[in-house]
Amino acid sequence: MKRINKRIFVLCAVFMSITFVSAQSTYDSPYSRFGLGDIFQLSNAMNGAMGGLKYGISSAFLVNPSNPASYSAFTRNYFVFDAGLQGSMVRMTSGEQTRDDGHFALGSMTFGIPLSEKWNAALGLVPYSSVGYSISDPGYHEDFGGYNTIFEGNGGISRLFLGASYKIGERFSLGANANYLFGSQNYLQTVTFDSINFINVRSEKSRIVSDVAFDAGIQYRHPLNTEKGTYLTAGLSAGIPGSLSAREDILMETFRFSGSGAVITLDTVKHMIGEKGKIIMPINVAGGLSIRRSDRWMAGFDLALQDWSDFEAFGRSDSLTQSFQVAIGGEYKINNWYLRSGMRFNQTYLQLKGSQLNEYGISFGIGIPVYNKSYSVSMLSAGIEIGQRGTKENGLIKESFSRLWLNFTMNQERWFKRREYL
Description:
Radius of gyration: 24 Å
Shape: elongated
Distance between the termini: 16 Å
Structural class: mainly beta
Number of helices: 3
Largest sheet: 14 strands, antiparallel, barrel
Oligomer: single chain
């Protein structure tokens, strides 16, 4: 019993230690200026390598919070632990200008806990959105000459979830998540003038999000060929619409540069701390189908819809519209290794300068089971996606990106079983 308690304590300590890091990880993109920033569509190697499939699939090795009904796939008495790293490399192109950027950081950490024959539970920490950009926009006006506007942003929102699933008979399962969304997003706008006759100005806004949201899902599993272990899984997931409580800190001041280049504040134009407000969130509906033959192969299809046109933050709307995503993918087992591949198309929620921003990617990956005496079975997974978002038309920015996921999944039998001695 002491060994079990020690293991639980170690896992909890590790879990809490990455909370701060996960909340701060960013994916740099000028498009993260809008809405809630870059929404994370993918969070682990298994989903990412299969084009982002997540609504109509389930696995004993996968903690899949995108559809909480999938928790019913956990094997009885087998505790699931998954942790991963994620990284990206991006080349941004606008006109004749090109810029490269990238990052690598801790990604998600999740736990799957079988409770009984019908009930299972899961909890974890995954990234929800990120903000990261630095944009310089020089200009000229006949009244005050040359000037430069710099837009900067950083921060992100994390999702801490606790969910449960309930199995109805042999074919249906229901699930729900309670999600605690938290984090801060910081926005800084600075205007400097070439002429010393005009005063520079900067505006800094920090948005702190802290509230609970809910989502639910259902899955239906239909046998197609019981002898070969072939079955069809259909899944549906929906996020309950509502609003998130948040607060804003706003600071606007004028300044000038000293001879050494240091910033000297002249006057505070506006200073507000802790202004309370709401972020209006839209409903999202998603579904998927998959066909699996035992542990040999699986193929699936996903479709997700979300209308962001009514999105508001503190009473302010944004350049957002309806988004949808289509994904196809699957895996095939060869010599005990799982080869995975997929592709996806995402019409993002951004509509800028009359252009709807689209994103697409093609992905590949591998899953390698690891067997030993201590752990019943574990899985090492890696996935990579290559894709593109945006366009160079109308003065916009095209992003050519590659993303990488590395995950370790442990499916352990004896975490909560009392040891027996003769």
